[in-house]
């Protein structure tokens, strides 16, 4: 227990952690990847797509969107000119 100022930590004498031998600093991945995230307000989803599979993912995603857009309602669009004339 440390009876110092708030936010102050007790020094237990441990040194900084050393990195594992399996990971090498500066090792660049041969394939760039893209993180995609989406939410509907309640549920969050994410996926990682490699640069080689971007076209495949894009085609599958666009087909999914087209298949699920038939249930949407048409928006009632009123032109701005009609609104401004009605206000005068």
From TrEMBL:
InterPro entries hit by this protein: Signal_recog_particle_SRP14, Signal_recog_particle_SRP9/14
Biased composition (Basic and acidic residues): 1-17
GO molecular function (one): 7S RNA binding
SUPFAM superfamilies per UniProt: Signal recognition particle alu RNA binding heterodimer, SRP9/14 (SSF54762)
Cited Gene3D superfamilies: Signal recognition particle alu RNA binding heterodimer, srp9/1 (3.30.720.10)
Pfam families (alphabetical): SRP14
Keywords: Cytoplasm, Ribonucleoprotein, RNA-binding, Signal recognition particle
Coiled-coil region: none
Ranges for region Disordered: 1-38, 67-88
GO biological process, one term: SRP-dependent cotranslational protein targeting to membrane
Chief subcellular location: cytoplasm
GO cellular component, one term: signal recognition particle, endoplasmic reticulum targeting
Subcellular location as annotated: Cytoplasm
Superkingdom: Eukaryota
Segments of skewed composition (Basic residues): 74-88
PANTHER family registered for this protein in UniProt: SIGNAL RECOGNITION PARTICLE 14 KD PROTEIN (PTHR12013)
The protein's role, per its UniProt record: Component of the signal recognition particle (SRP) complex, a ribonucleoprotein complex that mediates the cotranslational targeting of secretory and membrane proteins to the endoplasmic reticulum (ER). SRP9 together with SRP14 and the Alu portion of the SRP RNA, constitutes the elongation arrest domain of SRP. The complex of SRP9 and SRP14 is required for SRP RNA binding.
Binding partners and assembly: Heterodimer with SRP9; binds RNA as heterodimer. Component of a signal recognition particle (SRP) complex that consists of a 7SL RNA molecule of 300 nucleotides and six protein subunits: SRP72, SRP68, SRP54, SRP19, SRP14 and SRP9.
Homology family: Belongs to the SRP14 family.
Designated name of the protein: Signal recognition particle 14 kDa protein
């Amino acid at each position: 227990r440390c009876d110092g100022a708030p936010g102050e930590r007790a020094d237990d004498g441990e040194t900084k952690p050393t990195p594992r031998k399996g990971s090498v600093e500066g090792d660049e991945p041969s394939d760039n990847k893209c993180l995609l995230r989406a939410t509907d307000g309640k549920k969050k989803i994410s996926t990682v797509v490699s640069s080689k599979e971007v076209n495949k993912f894009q085609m599958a995603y666009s087909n999914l969107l087209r298949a699920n857009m038939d249930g949407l309602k048409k928006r009632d669009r009123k032109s701005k000119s009609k609104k401004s004339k009605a206000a005068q």
